[in-house]
Design brief:
The chain is α+β, with helices and mostly antiparallel strands and about 190 residues long. The protein has a four-stranded antiparallel β-sheet. The model has no long low-confidence stretch (mean pLDDT about 90).
Length: about 190
């Protein structure tokens, strides 16, 4: 991420606000990716403060685009963009992968590569390679993380009940099938 990316936020906002809501607006997702990145030359919190007005306007547009998403995977990418613009945090970087059916993460204890299988019913966590029995992910009943309840609400009000259910699993936890230690899915997905 370069400082020039931050400087482009104003121009990208102008471009976005001239467009009608639709399922995918490339410059909108670009701004989401810029503000979600943690590898830039500036503190992400300072960037969010500097562009607070633009991010608020774009978050509103992103929310208007959600009902126009063609697929659940597109909807998840739209939610990720909305989260980046409205709140930031880990879900502004790792929601989109949930729609791909599988997401890779590391056990925070043994560092073994695991795969979250979001297409399994119920959702499971299994070793990426080698022996090990998949473990069932315990979905969260009452999400506590920043924006998590809002993400479930947005999925529900937009008729994406399957996405809402998947999010409860993503906000949940499971035991690592290799070492047995607890794995908080969201933290492991984000590498924190």
């Amino acid at each position: 991420m370069a400082s020039a990316s931050y400087a482009a936020i104003g121009a990208l906002t102008d471009i976005c606000l001239q467009q009608r809501p639709r399922g995918y607006i490339a410059p909108l997702q670009l701004v989401g990716a810029i503000v979600a990145a943690e590898d830039g030359p500036e503190d992400p919190a300072q960037v969010r403060r500097r562009y607070a007005r633009e991010l608020a306007e774009l978050a509103e547009l992103a929310e208007q685009c959600l009902p126009l998403s063609a697929t659940d995977a597109d909807f998840l990418y739209g939610l990720e963009t909305w989260m980046a613009l409205a709140h930031g945090g880990p879900w502004s970087r790792c929601l989109g992968v949930l729609g791909e059916g599988e997401a890779l993460l590391d056990c925070p204890n043994c560092r073994r590569l695991l795969v979250l299988r979001t297409e399994d019913e119920p959702v499971t966590l299994a070793p990426w390679e080698g022996p090990g029995t998949p473990t069932v992910v315990d979905p969260v009943a009452d999400p506590e993380g920043p924006g998590e309840a809002q993400l479930i609400r947005l999925a529900t009000v937009n008729g994406r009940r399957g996405v809402a259910a998947m999010l409860r699993y993503a906000f949940g936890s499971a035991d690592c099938s290799a070492c047995g230690s607890p794995v908080t899915i969201g933290s492991a997905l984000d590498g924190s």
